[in-house]
Amino acid sequence: MKSKRILLAVAGVVVLAVVVVFAALSGTIFPKEPEMSEELMNIDPTDMSQYYAMGEYYPPNSVDSLNVDWQGGRVEIVAYNGDDYFVEEASTRYLQENERLTYTLDNNTFSVAFASEETEITDAYKKVEIRIPRKTAGSMKSINIKTDGEVVLKNITAESITVNGRERDVVLKNTYSGSTSLTTTDGKVSLFVKTDTGYSVDFSSKDGKLDSYVDNGMNSYVNGDGKYPFKVKTKTGDLNVSLYEEEQ
Q1: Predicted TM-score (pTM) of this structure
Q2: What's the pLDDT score for residue 229?
Q3: Structural domain spans, the chain
Q4: Most buried of 98, 147, 194, 218, CB within 10 angstroms?
Q5: Distance CA 204, CA 162 (A)
């Protein structure tokens, strides 16, 4: 009788284990990340003919820090010649109110989220562009970005820059900080730097390769005084370091 009870208990544990594993694989316990179709993931983010302009936002000029949490699609932060901050959201289809970006302002930190909480969008490609006045872009405190999409930063200087990406590319053009950390899985990281700028590179990757105009056969080096460090970590994504050329 005792052995029968033991067998029943073991059987119960096995059944429970099977249920837990199935639930985990199906996303019931550990929700899966929403996935876009391959067609949407490969859309040209610079072709504005494919987008609806969904909203414009004007943060106060006192903002000195940015946080962006973006499910997927392009995140672009650039310096421009205007006098005010300008944020624009665009999508490949019309968005409902809960599907549009949300934002908060806490002291001088402006935070942008992909959409309302618990809203997932898999049938549209969204992107956001944040333009920073040049007079401010050279003295930002922090920029933090978390996304599954492409990231582009141009002509920005901050105390710290952090990008946590996945499969899409990360591009920094003439953009520096006292502590820059860039992480992707498969996405390529491209740095465009000026020759007279002191910086350092520390690259770690399982399968990615470093391609730089500075060739010392190693995954780390210092250029000039090394004032601006770049710490880059990928799984398979490559790191490319090129000379920056002013855009006309």
Answers
A1: 0.80
A2: 98
A3: 1-32, 38-243
A4: 147
A5: 16
